[in-house]
Design goal:
Radius of gyration: 20 Å
Strand order of the largest sheet: 3-4-7-6
Order of helices and strands: EEEEEHHEHEHEHEHHHEEH
Number of helices: 9
């Protein structure tokens, strides 16, 4: 997000798929207000990105419009157009994954019923509103460094993929516990342990979060 005469507005929208992290969408967004500060340290967007951007064209890639040495971002003319492009990749049941997603949802001006937020998956022991930063979580759990661009600012694709990898790790850890407790999957449905089978405190926690025999989305 950047600062405009109308406040904080969306200036770049990036979406990647999960779990492979391939790019789905990465565009600059012309805000409604006049740009005052691109907030480049955090947004990773600089004046030259807007100066060199080309109008959005469906099916074109950054490589095609800018070449392999200097890929140029495409520019959509309004936040509403950016939302339309994002909705092409979402349904009501599509999990929206990210870190501190309330910021992203506010920026794009959407409400989505199915979210997976790494702030909640990896809570701070002192509880909200205190939270771990994405950079710290990735270093601690994935032993990987992100947001190392310094004055160049954050890389939105790197952040999106990092959040996705944290979710994948949590899914793997949770499924390991579930299988130990007797959970199985048949025809895409989760089946709880059979009566009389192994039980633990984990079972009640899992039942509360995924539900018995819930279909995969």
């Amino acid at each position: 997000m950047g600062y405009t005469t109308l406040g904080m507005e969306l200036i770049r929208l990036t979406a990647t798929s999960w779990p492979d992290g391939s790019e789905l969408l990465d565009v600059l967004v012309r805000p409604m207000g006049e740009i005052l500060d691109l907030n480049s340290r955090f947004s990773g967007v600089w004046p030259h990105h807007f100066n060199e951007a080309v109008p959005y064209s469906a099916g074109s890639t950054k490589m095609e419009v800018g070449g392999p040495q200097a890929p140029r971002l495409q520019l959509v003319e309004s936040p509403s157009k950016a939302r339309e492009l994002l909705f092409e990749h979402l349904t009501m049941q599509t999990p929206l994954i990210g870190h501190a997603l309330e910021n992203d949802l506010n920026a794009v001006r959407i409400i989505h019923p199915t979210i997976v937020d790494t702030v909640l998956l990896y809570p701070h022991p002192r509880g909200l509103p205190i939270r771990y930063g994405l950079k710290m979580l990735v270093k601690k759990h994935l032993n990987r460094d992100i947001q190392m661009g310094g004055e160049r600012g954050h890389d939105s694709k790197e952040d999106a993929r990092a959040a996705g990898d944290l979710v994948r790790l949590k899914v793997a850890e949770t499924w390991k516990v579930m299988t130990r407790d007797g959970w199985t999957v048949d025809d895409g449905e989760f089946n709880p342990p059979l009566p009389g089978g192994p039980t633990s405190s984990t079972e009640s926690r899992i039942l509360g979060s995924v539900g018995a025999k819930r279909k995969r989305s």
